[in-house]
Write a structure and sequence with these properties.
Blueprint: H1 3-10, H2 13-38, H3 43-58, H4 61-72, H5 81-106, H6 110-118, H7 123-153, H8 165-176, H9 180-213
Helix pairs in contact: 1-8, 1-9, 2-5, 4-5, 5-7, 7-9, 8-9
InterPro entries: AA_ABC_transptr_permease_3TM, ArtM/GltK/GlnP/TcyL/YhdX-like, MetI-like, MetI-like_sf
Membrane topology: Multi-pass membrane protein
Domain ABC transmembrane type-1: 13-201
């Protein structure tokens, strides 16, 4: 491997981060309403959402990528490889984040809801000042873990031509006729990208815990 090969691999880092960040943003935004529908008191809606979540989680990520890119992308809508990958991983992230949010919500005791209503707080104040800080604190560690897993899963996007880290590692392997070293470099890049996420998660959780404790 040469310095040029290392630079070629490094050019895949922004696309890997963009793919991971875009998919997680979609999942984080859509996950909350999905969680609310999942916890609906209207039983047919609740059962339907449970079935949809189970169905989406049952299919492997690579199948969702292929369905959106080779299915929808080549017929109904013109999707670029990157957009198809973000949409596929965003769908998966949405249902997984819904379950993470639900875990944070059910961890809050019923007494807190009753106390908030007894104080005559508005629904917005209950969510913003009482429930959200506690729910976020509980959901933060699994969310960070999911982001790291999502970053690793983003390598699947290389199968449809997204030039992220794994794709560029394969290109360098073919150009240099080396198998181990290029993918070792790619693996080191994934580790280097994952460490700040874990550190930020621990820092944010510590600050949220101190805020809730006050």
């Amino acid at each position: 491997m040469t310095w040029g090969h290392l630079v070629h691999i490094a050019y895949g880092i922004p696309l890997t981060l963009a793919l991971t960040g875009g998919a997680f943003f979609v999942g984080a935004v859509l996950g909350f309403p999905i969680m609310l529908l999942r916890e609906s008191s209207f039983m047919p809606l609740k059962v339907a959402m449970i079935a949809i979540i189970a169905f989406i989680r049952a299919l492997p990520p690579i199948l969702w990528v292929f369905l959106l890119y080779f299915g929808i992308g080549t017929g109904l809508i013109n999707l670029s490889p990157f957009v198809a990958a973000v949409a596929a991983f965003g769908i998966i992230a949405a249902v997984n984040m819904a379950e993470i949010y639900r875990g944070g919500m059910v961890s809050i005791s019923a007494g807190q809801w009753e106390a908030a209503h007894a104080l005559n707080l508005s629904r917005l104040s209950i969510w913003r000042d009482v429930m959200a800080p506690q729910m976020v604190r509980v959901a933060l560690p699994p969310s960070a873990t999911y982001v790291i897993g999502l970053m690793k899963d983003s390598a699947i996007a290389s199968t449809i031509g997204v030039a992220e880290l794994a794709y560029r590692g394969k290109q360098v392997s073919q150009m240099s006729f080396e198998g181990l070293l290029p993918f070792t470099v790619v693996g080191a890049c994934y580790i280097a990208l994952s460490l700040p996420v874990a550190w930020l998660s621990r820092t944010a959780e510590r600050k949220l815990r101190a805020k809730v404790a006050r």
